[in-house]
Every structure is written in C-alpha cells, then in structure tokens.
Design a protein that fits this description.
The complex is a heterodimer. By secondary structure, chain A is an alpha/beta fold. Chain A is built from five helices and nine strands. The longest helix of chain A is centred in the first third of the chain and has 21 residues. Chain B is mainly α. Chain B is globular, with a radius of gyration of 23 Å. In chain B, the strands form three sheets. Chain B has a three-stranded antiparallel beta sheet, with no helix packed on it. Chain B has a domain of 187 residues: paralog of FGE (formylglycine-generating enzyme) (Alpha-Beta Complex), CATH 3.90.1580. Chain B contains nine helices and seven strands, in the order ααββββααααβαααββ. Classes of the chains: A alpha/beta, B mainly alpha. At the A-B interface, helix 1, helix 4 and strand 6 of A face helix 1, helix 2, helix 4 and helix 7 of B.
C-alpha cells in the first residue's frame, strides 16, 4: 500500500515537472530579449533586457550631455507618454538607452530623469558598456559615432516593441508622435 | 517492500531537485547565454596574425582634414575560412543555420549549406566563409579571444600595396583594386593564393568584402536628413567632392556597401577576418 502511494506521489511530481518545462513559452527567434547583455537602470539595478518582458516598449537611444537632437527626442518621448491612454499606461515602458555609457552612469541618468520630470515607474533609463551598446544599436539598425569626447553623431529613431520583444515599428527622423501613440495603443490591445 | 519505499523516496527527491533546477535556469536563457558570454568554444585558433604598428591616417572621406590615429594591433593574415566556420558551428550549435536566432541573422544565413554541419556542395574548405551576419562574425571572433577590426584599422591596412604601407597616391593602386572588385565569383577561391601586402596580410581585396566592428558608424542620407549632418560628405553626391581621395573609387565602394548593411544581413560575398589588441586587458 505504502509503495502504491509513493508511486503515485512520484508520478505526480514527474508530471508537474513536465508542465513546468513547457512554461514559460520560448521567446520568438527575433525577440530583442534574446540579447544577453547586462544593463543598469537609473537606480543602479543590474538587469537584462529580458527583465523588460511583458510590457509594450517604446525605445530610443540618446546621451544626456547632448545639446542638439536628443532634447528633441526626449521631448517626443514625453509627448508620447502624455498621450498614452490611461488604461494602457501600466502596460507600457518608455526606455531611454544611453549611447554614451562612459558619461551616463546610473546616477547621472537618475539626475537626468529628475530634471526632466521622468521619474514615474514607466520610465526606464539604461546604460551598459561600449560593446553591448553597439550591439543594441545594431539591433535597432541605428547608426552612431563618437565624434569628440563629449559628442556623438547618431540617427534619430523611436522604436516600438511588443511585450515579447518583437519589433513592431520604427519612426525615424522627423518623428510623428501621434503615429507612435497609435501603434503603441494597437500593440497593447493586441497583447491583452 | 521497505526497500522499494526507499527507492521511491529517492526518486521523488530527484524529481523535486530537477524541478527546482529548471525553475532557476530556464532552458531558453541558458542556451542563449552561450552566444556571447565567452563560453563559446572553438578549437582552431592558429591563424597567423600580422603586427600592424598603427599610425596616423587620413580617412577616405570627410571634409575635415584631420588625421585619425590607429593604435598598434594584430590582424589575421587572411579571412576566416569555410572549414574554420564549420568547426565553430559544430562546437556552438546555437550558430547552426537551423538554430540561429532570427534577430542575429537573416534567413539567408548559411543558406547554401547542405545541412547544419555540412558545407555547400563543392565548396572549398579553404575559401572564405560568407553568408554570415555581423553578430555571427562577432561571436566567432569572441569564441577565439579575438574581435573584429575597426573600420579605421581595416582601412589603415588597406592603404598598403605589396611594397609600401600607403600606396594611395599611386594610380595603379586603385586601378588594381577596381579590377579585382569587377571579377565575379571570386569568393569561392581559397585564401592565401595571391601575394600578401606590405604588412604580410593576404586577400584584402581579391576575394570578399569584410565586416568591420563599427560598420554602423557611417552616417549618411536618411540619417543626415534627420538633423545630424556630420557625415554629409557622403550625402547627395557630396562624397565625390569632399572625399579626401577622389581617385580612390574602390574605397568609396566599400563605404557605400557598409552604409547599406544592417547587422543581421548576410551577403554572398561578405565575410570577415579577426583582429586583436597588442596589449591584453585583463580586466575587460
């Protein structure tokens, strides 16, 4: 009798194992969460891109000492954020990735976020090292080049990613904020 | 009877242990980490490298006349071959064509290979590997403790002909390269069957185009219009007027190719070779 219960219990455990194996679902092959690079956010926490999984992402690459294009990109991000429907808000992260990891320490990003009133939890600032930054820029097909110790030349792209990390759309150059907001809304709805 | 109960208990605890292991290490994450974490394996690392002492050089284009400094470095004397890449995918299944993540390589990645671990029919194992993405080239280089050369490093070495480190002022230098670029299907030929340049480096022009680490650092056209004008020399035919070396049409072709690439692209005659710092940074 004893033996029988043991057997049942063991079988039960084995089955539950199998169930867990199927879960979580594998990432899509083209997901940015396949990148293994390590990042730090504006609070100094270490994280992987995969930790952003589950929310629709709006991503832009900037550097905080930039005087020309980045302030425009940052204001576009804020404008996008202000136009997100209330019910969508908690399903969205707005991610600003630094292309200047040397200068943009977590502390500096934190300061930047405060100055620009981007302290709410939906704002994520990321910084890593040169190689991971370059790799991420390549995933976004973004071009950038250090032209002096304090200045970068770079393309202006705002990208939207689905909650499992697949690229949904990219707006480049003169970015149409309303178009991004619409894409964002559709992506959030689709993933619900 | 008691015996069996004991065995069952052991079995259960094994079951429990393996369960908790799975929770801590999702299969997906582990297999991915192998891509870039330095655990990638490669057994063949013995490509000879040429010592390049570096120096200042004038990049091919750009309206400013400032010189760019190239630090001393080591460069593979020849491109990575089919045979070497085959070894790489054998020990790193994540880079086999049926396993590669789409974000790291487009659908044409190794498309002509007969299987995950079989070279294309009739392919020469000593011919340069092509149809690989920037991500794949980077992973290969890291697997043997090397890296991809930077654009400036590559172009610095490309200035040499057989007898001088900088042959750009010789008219036959550019003519010769253009002639080579015009030959078709040259990527199927084996490496090191043509004479080396001044530095002892082979096949800079005669077989393939090559990935560089920072190929994405040239800003042109669309990017220029988006508010950044640093590299306008390549925009709207500007290259023709502000290139520092207008006779060097071959270099112009290389820059044009690089600006058209994305990191996941794979091209039938685009391969790579590796480089290495002369000083080893232990804390990197």
């Amino acid at each position: 009798m004893n033996r029988f219960y043991f057997f049942l219990a063991a079988m039960f455990l084995l089955t539950s194992c199998e169930d867990k194996q199927k879960h979580p679902e594998p990432l899509p092959s083209d997901s940015i969460f396949n990148l293994s690079s390590q990042w730090k956010n504006q609070y100094g926490d270490s994280l992987y891109l995969k930790d952003l999984q589950g929310k629709t992402l709006v991503v832009v690459m900037i550097y905080t000492s930039c005087k020309t294009a980045c302030p425009i990109l940052v204001s576009k991000m804020k404008s996008i954020e202000s136009k997100i429907a209330k019910k969508d808000k908690r399903d969205v992260s707005l991610v600003l990735v630094s292309i200047d990891p040397e200068t943009d320490t977590p502390a500096r990003l934190h300061e930047f976020a405060k100055t620009n009133q981007m302290s709410d939890p939906q704002w994520v600032f990321l910084t890593s090292n040169e190689s991971s930054t370059q790799e991420f820029a390549n995933v976004l097909s973004m071009k950038y080049k250090k032209i002096s110790p304090i200045d970068f030349s770079h393309s202006n792209i705002i990208s939207v990613f689905s909650p499992d990390g697949q690229l949904v759309s990219q707006e480049e150059g003169a970015i149409d904020v309303d178009k991004v907001v619409l894409t964002l809304h559709e992506t959030v709805q689709k993933s619900k | 009877m008691k015996h069996f109960g004991f065995i069952a208990a052991v079995w259960m605890s094994i079951g429990l242990m393996s369960c908790s292991n799975q929770e801590n290490n999702p299969v997906e994450e582990k297999s991915f980490a192998d891509h870039f974490s330095g655990t990638v394996q490669n057994t063949r690392v013995n490509t000879a490298m040429a010592y390049i002492p570096g120096g200042e050089y004038k990049p091919f284009y750009g309206s400013d006349t400032s010189l760019v400094k190239v630090e001393p470095f080591l460069l593979d004397e020849r491109p990575v071959t089919n045979g070497e890449y085959l070894d790489f995918v054998k020990s790193n299944p994540a880079w086999q064509k049926s396993n590669v993540k789409r974000i790291f390589a487009d659908t044409a990645y190794l498309h002509n290979w007969s299987s995950d671990t079989t070279l294309p029919e009739g392919a020469n194992a000593d011919a340069p590997i092509c149809n690989i993405s920037w991500f794949a080239a980077k992973a290969y280089a890291e697997s043997i403790g090397k890296r991809l050369p930077t654009l400036d490093e590559w172009e610095f070495v490309a200035m040499a002909d057989a007898t001088s480190p900088n042959a750009r002022s010789k008219s036959e230098y550019s003519d010769r390269i253009i002639d080579l670029y015009l030959q078709k299907n040259r990527q199927f030929n084996p490496v090191k069957h043509s004479p080396p340049n001044y530095w002892g480096v082979y096949n800079m022009f005669d077989l393939i185009w090559e990935w560089t680490d920072d190929f994405n650092s040239i800003l042109t056209t669309g990017d220029s219009r988006s508010g950044q004008y640093e590299d306008k020399s390549l925009f709207c035919a500007g290259g023709a007027t502000s290139a520092t070396d207008i006779l060097n049409y071959a270099a112009f072709m290389r820059f044009a190719l690089r600006t058209s690439l994305k990191a996941d692209f794979t091209v039938a005659n685009l391969g790579f070779r590796c480089a290495r710092d002369t000083v080893v940074h232990l804390n990197k």
